[in-house]
């Protein structure tokens, strides 16, 4: 997603895998995490696809999450965390994490939050500290209060793991986006929820009730909604007035 809308950046036949788990846009294109093909860098001008897999140093060809830092790219795989700099893997973390299955990443200044299948870790100066367990962490995104929010069974504000008011502690929170103080939450059972002033209400739901990913573009919200495919919702108009 960019200022021009939604576009297909690369022909699927050019990718080493077809199941896309995560995408991060950059000035020159995007990084994409593939569940069945490693990590790829996509050039939006030439449409060249550069692939990174086990042969390039990744601990696994299953990549669940990717985030771009100041000078590095962080790669969450099914068998650990990798740091990529200048086109090569410079370090891998496995046993120091709560679990090697890394499924969410969040960059917060010089801190990297690492969400795994069995807990959360904080990486600073290349040193790992376990801060939450043993719950599975599905998402790490910045909330409207500028803190990093962790989507797990419930929603927690970091670094203190404080529960966010109004969110059911039994719900799996897969992603979030906010427009000012209005926070939209993706769940795998209750569809898309709107969290406002400490109260969560249903905003939209698919046939199965599963929403796994959100992306904001202007006044629109795009949803990856299980059996409904890609859904666009208009949630704000010019001036911020909600429709």
Through-space gap between termini: 22 Å
Tally of individual helices: 0
Largest beta sheet: strand ordering: 1-2-3-4
Overall mean pLDDT: 90
**Total number of strands:** 23
Oligomer: single chain
Low-pLDDT parts are none
Instruction: Classify the helix fraction into a percent range.
Output: under 10%
What class, by secondary structure content? Answer: mainly beta
Estimate the strand proportion. Answer: over 45%
What does the largest sheet look like? Answer: 4 strands, antiparallel
Backbone CA Rg: 18 Å
Report the principal-axis shape.
globular
N to C succession of SSEs: EEEEEEEEEEEEEEEEEEEEEEE
List keywords for this structure.
243 residues, mainly beta, 4-stranded antiparallel β-sheet
Sum this structure up briefly.
With 243 residues, the protein is an all-beta fold. The chain is built from no helices and 23 strands.
What would you note in describing this structure?
With 243 residues, the chain is mainly beta. 0% of the residues lie in helices and 51% in strands. It is built from no helices and 23 strands. The chain has a four-stranded antiparallel beta sheet with strand order 1-2-3-4, with no helix packed on it. A hairpin with a 5-residue loop joins strand 22 and strand 23 (230-234).
Topology:
Elements: E1 20-26, E2 29-34, E3 38-43, E4 49-52, E5 63-68, E6 73-77, E7 80-85, E8 88-93, E9 102-108, E10 111-116, E11 119-124, E12 127-132, E13 139-142, E14 148-152, E15 154-157, E16 162-163, E17 173-179, E18 182-187, E19 192-196, E20 199-204, E21 213-217, E22 220-224, E23 230-234
Antiparallel strand pairs: 1-2, 2-3, 3-4, 5-6, 6-7, 7-8, 9-10, 10-11, 11-12, 13-14, 14-15, 15-16, 17-18, 18-19, 19-20, 21-22, 22-23
């Amino acid at each position: 997603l960019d200022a021009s809308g939604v576009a297909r950046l690369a022909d699927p036949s050019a990718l080493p895998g077809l199941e896309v788990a995560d995408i991060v846009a950059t000035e020159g294109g995007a990084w994409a995490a593939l569940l069945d093909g490693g990590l790829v860098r996509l050039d939006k001008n030439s449409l060249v696809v550069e692939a990174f897999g086990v042969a390039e140093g990744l601990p696994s060809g299953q990549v669940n999450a990717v985030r771009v830092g100041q000078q590095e790219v962080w790669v969450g795989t099914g068998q650990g965390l990798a740091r990529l700099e200048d086109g090569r893997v410079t370090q891998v973390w496995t046993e120091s994490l709560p679990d090697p299955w890394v499924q969410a990443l969040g960059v917060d200044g010089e801190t990297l939050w690492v969400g795994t299948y069995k807990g959360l870790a904080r990486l600073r100066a290349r040193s790992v500290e376990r801060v939450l367990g043993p719950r599975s962490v599905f998402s790490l995104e910045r909330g409207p209060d500028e803190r990093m929010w962790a989507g797990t069974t419930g929603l927690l504000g970091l670094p203190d793991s404080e529960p966010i008011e109004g969110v059911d502690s039994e719900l799996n929170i897969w992603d979030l986006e906010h427009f000012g103080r209005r926070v939209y939450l993706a769940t795998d059972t209750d569809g898309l929820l709107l969290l406002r002033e400490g109260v969560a209400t249903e905003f939209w739901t698919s046939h199965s009730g599963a929403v796994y990913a959100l992306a904001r573009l202007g006044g629109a919200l795009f949803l990856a909604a299980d059996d409904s495919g890609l859904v666009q919702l208009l949630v704000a108009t010019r001036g911020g007035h909600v429709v």
